[in-house]
Structures are given as structure tokens and as C-alpha cells.
Amino acid sequence: MSNKKSIVDIPTVNKIARLSRLDIPEKNKQSLTNDLNNILGFVANLEEVDTSNVEPLASVTGHKLPLRSDIVTDGNMEDLVLKNAPESSSGFFVVPKVIE
Amino acid sequence: MSDLLKYDLLGASEAIKSKEISSVELTNAYIEAIEKTSSLGAYLEIVKDKALEMAKVSDENISKGVSRPLEGLPIGIKDMFCTKDIKTTASSKILDNFYPTYESTVTQNLWNDGAVMLGKLSCDEFAMGSSNETAAKGNVINPWLKHKKMSPGGSSGGSAAAVAARSALAATGTDTGGSIRQPAAFCGITGLKPTYGRCSRWGIVAFSSSLDQAGPLTRTVSDAALMLNSMASYDKKDSTSANLNMPDLMSYLGNSIKGKKIGIPKEYTQDGISDDIVNFYQKSINWLKEAGAEIIPVSLPHTKYALPVYYIIAPAEASSNLARYDGVRFGQRKEASSLDEMYEATRGEGFGDEVKRRIMIGTYVLSSGYYDAYYLKAQKVRRLIKEDFENVFKKVDYILTPSTPTTSFELGKKQDPLTMYLNDIFTVPASLAGLPGISLPIGLDKLGLPIGIQLIANSFDEPGLISTAHVLEKSADFNFIADGAAK
User: Fold this and answer.
1) Residues 8..67 of A with a Cβ closer than 8 Å to B: which?
2) Statement: B1-487 belongs to CATH 3.90.1300.10
3) What is this structure's pTM?
4) pLDDT digit string (tens) for A15-49?
5) What is d(CA B161, CA B187) in angstroms, rounded to the nearest whole number?
6) Least buried of A36, B29, B61, B263, by fewest C-beta within 10 Å?
7) Closest by alpha carbon to A36, among A47, A45, A28, A25?
């Protein structure tokens, strides 16, 4: 498990930035790499905890997620939904062209 | 005029109900106080006309003999709460032009109960920070030792600064790892983070969904009880909302704590805590003892893993939650020729450095090959931390700890992200376990900066938390007012 924890380098930062859809300027990459390594170093002490028989905890509430009836609840609010869109047209969000 | 600012929330409520003062008078006094203290930078948006309109309705209600629980009381709202048609930015550039078309459940509850809205309060960007320095619109200054430009703490720094500066009678905050309790401690006020699930998360800008919880920042414990009474509710729109009635917290004020057991965890007295805080921690223990409580040493053995767990889980959830800022549906867009370039440019320009760091960490720990080693491991240790508390709460009723390892620091002095993260060392464990915690002011350090003490209760024991905090508040008798407060 621990052998999977490699130190972050600039190619890794490029990959993670791409997955995160974040444009990181070249000049900031080294300091960001250092920050990430420091933070990952800080959390590395978790390795020493024996968790072999421990179930992961995703929610502290202890209750089951409630279900609701499978009915449309959108409320016909097209105008409100689009109100904050940077660009919209004929009831749609507009994005840069994705098909050549 | 200044007489009006002397009322705390409960006092103002009584004065309005008895028609000693009107809500319009009180609201005008607060609008003036906001203007007088504007150099602190606590407010991002002031809604003067709306405030006076709401105050007028309250005065009309009072004249008709109707009074809702918060009738006519002017409060500030952290900019993490969506407020209908009022700009909501989460202190981020990426939401600079966002006007929600809906109202968060918590703020709607407050307006339904008669509260008057003064405006939106600054915070760390997307509530990520412990000094309010990551806010896109600049720093907030702590009203204590104002000339020295100290941090109000964070992320609810604007909320804490406004309550301490008397430019809001009370304020809402959100707490993910300490964002209500740490700024409350830094600003000499009371901050309460309820049990996870007490307050609906619906309409609150999401940071880390398994941790985020709204709560009040107030001058007193009674005020916190009054605010939380209104803020808390079961809400079908939040799937993690607790379907439990909140007892009337006001009825728990003044209860004796005789025979109650208070746990003192040995892991919370480590190196690096300032001497003044250690001294006041000891004083608080003595005060509780004098009030008839039994002091019991306890151990929460996984405490030292709380921050590492938090700095995996919170960024992981944030990286997912913040995927919605894509320049398509709301917020800023930076034009580019392809869709992916548009996403990258929009997010690269719209998010600040700390937010980017957390998105990057979160994406990394969730990415293929690292998920088990980091994210799953953190979730497992989170369970151990929660079990530590469960074991201790078999033996004690409440846990007493310092709120923070140090008092406030000068703005611009703590640049290293990890040093900043250590601010939340005493508040993060209760957050990970979903437990309610309150920070209240108990004294001043050598420099004259406020010191906070934290009480942690078992899940959904806000009533007992209020009783115990109220006893401690009486003993501490903290009557200091920040030098930068409105006069």
C-alpha cells in the first residue's frame, strides 16, 4: 500500500491539474509541487495506524439515506435555472463548440 | 445611539417586545455601526433598504401584538449561505456575479422567525482557511488590538469580527473543521457548531459535505441558544438532516451542572499551546469543579491523526463539490476555444491558491492508485476517532479543551499552509465525529487578545452543552469589549 505513495513531481502536478480542470501557470508549478509534498508528508503518519479490521466511515449520522417517491420535482423553473448562466439560448446552457 | 448597541440579542429581543425600543431604531444603529467599522472589512454586501423594510414589518407585528422568536433583531449572514437575489460569493472570485434564485433553509428559518438581515459577511474562500486571508475581496481585521491588524480567524472571520465589533447583533457561520469555533475564540465571542445534521445544509455553498454544519456566532451563550433554536430544523431537502426535534434551548439556561462529569483529554495539552491558554484552561477546570462538576481525566488516543484525516477527507469532498464551478451554469466564465480549455481557464482564474491546493490534494487522494492508501485509509481512521469519543462519552458528559493552541496572530504572518492547518488542531476531532462543540471567551492573554475554551458534547446534546457553557460563562465573567468595536 505505502509503495503506491510516490512523491509528487511536476509531471504529476500536470496530470492532477488536468484531472481537476485547473489551469496552473508554469511559474506556480514548483511551489505547488512543494506544497502538495508537504501536505502529503503531513498526512503520511496515518500509515502507522492499524486499520486492518476497521470499516471506513463515510457518514456520521448513523441513519439510512431517506428515499422519496420517484416523481418529477423540477417545478418548471427554467428561467430561474438559467438566470445565472454566463451564456444561454432558447432554454439551453451554451458552451464552446464540442463537435467539429 | 450607542446605548442601542449595548443590548445583546436576548436583551434586544426583550426591549423590542416591551416596546422600549423599535426594530427600526435598532437596525439604524447597526447600519451606522457597520459604516463606522467599515475599515475592518467584515461585510461584503450591506442590504440597508431590505434591513429597514424587514425592521418595519417587525415593528408593525409588535404593534399588533405578534412577536416571533427573533422579531426585529438585525443579524449578519456568512457569505456561504445562499440568499435570494442577494449576491452570494463564498468570498470567491468565481462567484463574483452569482445571485441565488433561492434562499438557504437556515436563513429562511431565521427570516421566518423575524430576524432582520443586515448583509453578507466575508469568510475564507469557500470556507477554506483559518485566518480569513483567502477571501478574494481582501483581509478582515480583528477588532481586538485593531491597530495591530490581527486575524479574526477563519473561515467565519467576517461573522466573528462583525459580532465582536458590534456591527451585527449576531451572525451565522459554517464550521467544517473549526470555522465557527476558532474565529469565535480569536474575536472574544461565542461560537456554536451543532451536531452534524441539526441544521440543514440546503442552500449553503458546499465545501465538505460530510463535515459542513451551520451554527451561530453571538455575544453570549444565551444568544447562541436563541439563534440555534431558529436555525435548526429537519429538512427533507438535505438527505443528512436529522429528523429530531430540537428542544427549546432557552429552557436549559441556568440549569445546575452539579454531578456532571467533565472529561479532560490528555492529548489536548501538548507542546505549542501558549502559557496563557494553559492557565485559563486550568482556571476553567476549577470553575466547573466549583460549580459541582466532577473532573475526570480521559484519553482520545487517535487525536494526533485528526488533522491528517481531515486534510484528506475535506479536500477530497471539496474537489468533488467544487467541480460544479465550470463556467457553464453560474459564476464567472473565461472564454476559450474548446470546452476543456474553457473549464481550465475559468477555474484557474476564478479560484484562489488555497482552494486550488485543496482541489489538487483532493483529486490526488481520490485518483486511481492512491484512493485506498489515502482516502479509504482516512475514512477508516475517522471511524477510530469517532470511536474514541464514543468510549469517552460512556464515562463523561462533556469534554473540555482549549479552542485553539494560540490566540490571534498578525495578518500576513502565517504563510505556510501546514502551519495554518494547525490552528484547527483542537476543533477538527469533534467535527470528524459529527459532535456539537461551543467556544466561549474566558479571558485575555498578556497582549490583551481573547482566549476561548471549547466544550464538546455527545451527539444531539446541545441542551446540555448550553447548560454547561452557561455555567462556565458566568464563572469567567468575560466583560471585555474589543477596542475596535463600534461605540
Assistant:
1) 8, 12-13, 16-25, 32, 35-36, 38-40, 42-47, 49, 51, 54-61, 63, 65-66
2) yes
3) 0.97
4) 999 999 999 999 999 999 999 999 999 999 999 99
5) 6
6) B61
7) A28
